[in-house]
User: Fold this.
Amino acid sequence: MRGAKPASWAGEAVTMPIREPALVLFSGGQDSATCLAWALGAFDRVETIGFDYGQRHRVELACRDRLAERLRREFPGWGPKLGADRIVDLSVLGQISETALTSDAAIAFTESGLPTTFVPGRNLLFFAFAAAIGYRRGLRHLVGGMCETDYAGYPDCRDDALKALQVALTLGMNKRFVIHTPLMWRDKRATWQLAYELGGDALVELIREESHSCYLGERSVLHDWGYGCGTCPACELRRNGWEAFASARS
Ligand code: ZN
Assistant:
């Protein structure tokens, strides 16, 4: 990686930390790993939550520990802020879904125009569970890596859906929740760029090596853009974003 270092880490995208804690939906993927770094710059203290829903790419859950451990060790300014992690068993979601993310079904587009990787209700459930834990733990800021710019049109990744959910959670629990989606209007190139602005080459390398995107759970070969099969939609997005990011910096 080449290019001049930004003038200050965590100073480009975030000016002043919010003096409150946040709960980050942390799957182990590129997006949520970038969001975790963003939140560590944006908030006083950060907790993480992950979901085991019988996903085909469960290997992403194993990436979480390594990502968190290296964030703690290699980013001393962030490490002390990184608090408790929990994984919630949502295997029931896998049981009631017949999708390409929760079974061996082929990855393709359906008549509805949505890909078979769409797991109906997934992000709605994730935020409902995050809010239930946030309610108990005093964490009203919920952070997720949803993005409507270059994903396959998942309706529960859209800004309007998540703004409506924020209102529903706030009213339904009679407690103010704020859903933060720092990647909402970024494509994958801009997500790599955000990682660079937050933590320089060290963070880009950490996310490249340790995060997982591939829907098929492939982690045998480390490509320029990270591990993955290279051909599933998640790998394609990640690779294309990386190539655009790398070529802009060369
Ligand atoms: Zn793949």
